[in-house]
Amino acid sequence: MENLKNKTIGSFVAEDFRTAAVFSKYRIDFCCKGNRTVNEVCEKQNIDADALLENVLQVAQSEKNGSIDFNSWPLDLLADYIEKTHHRYVEEKTSVLLPFLDKLCKVHGANHPELFKINELFIGCAGELSQHMKKEELILFPFVKRMVKTKESDGILHQPSFGTVSNPIAMMMHEHDNEGERFRAIAELTNNYTPPADACTTYRVTFAMLREFEEDLHKHIHLENNILFPKAVVLEKDFVEVE
């Protein structure tokens, strides 16, 4: 048990994504800040580390029932999955949430002024994520896929214009941190997505969608920060000749 306390949160979730539910229950960030150890997190948030690990192990040791092992996937497949699943999700949901939030501000803003700040935060999120995903789709992911193909063919990896894969990864992780902070603020302003007593149907649906959006974003960032990115860095190091 003591050894597990020095294991990072992200590595637990990378091995078994079902443990993410446990960390979420304790309000522990497993995606943007997944590089922290159990000890670090528990000391900072005043959590009983033994109780947390007991819950994590219960989940990890239970039958998986078809749980997807993303950690075993080849990197090109994982990059495709992230783009086709999580990037598309962001695009689809932002187009619905933006007008919903605008409507809530107009109808309920007088009684619930926090809606204006929530709307402002989500508009920022939508804009930044759109640019962020394009950088991944046009620059980072194609290079990851090229590394996989080059490795399979025993070819030579030519150095990209950005130098090393660690450079765009550092930028992507910084942007992940920004969105993590933005959604922590949204969760606080919405009282963890709890609609007020006078909420109409649109109000309730919007808050439910925001909660789902944050959950999907956590999965999205986790797959990149804790699996795709570190493995891409390791893969790049396998190439002796870089031109």
Structural class: mainly alpha
Strand content: under 5%
**Major sheet attributes:** none
Mean pLDDT: 91
Tally the beta strands.
Answer: 0
As a percent range, the share of helical residues equals 55-70%
- The helix-strand sequence is HHHHHHHH
Number of helices: 8
Gross geometry: globular
Domain Hemerythrin-like: 84-232
InterPro entries: Hemerythrin-like (IPR012312), RIC_family (IPR019903)
Pfam families: Hemerythrin, ScdA_N
Subcellular location: Cytoplasm
Structure, explained:
This is Iron-sulfur cluster repair di-iron protein. Pfam families: Hemerythrin (PF01814), ScdA_N (PF04405). It is found in: Cytoplasm. Residues 84-232 form the Hemerythrin-like domain. Keywords: Cytoplasm, Iron, Metal-binding. It is a single chain. The protein has 243 residues and is mostly helical. The model has no long low-confidence stretch (mean pLDDT 91). Helix 6 packs antiparallel against helix 7 (166-189). The N and C termini lie far apart (46 Å). The chain has 8 helices and no strands. The chain is 69% helix and 0% strand.
Describe the secondary structure blueprint for this structure.
Blueprint: H1 9-15, H2 20-25, H3 38-45, H4 49-61, H5 75-108, H6 114-152, H7 166-189, H8 201-237
Helix pairs in contact: 1-8, 5-6, 5-8, 6-7, 7-8
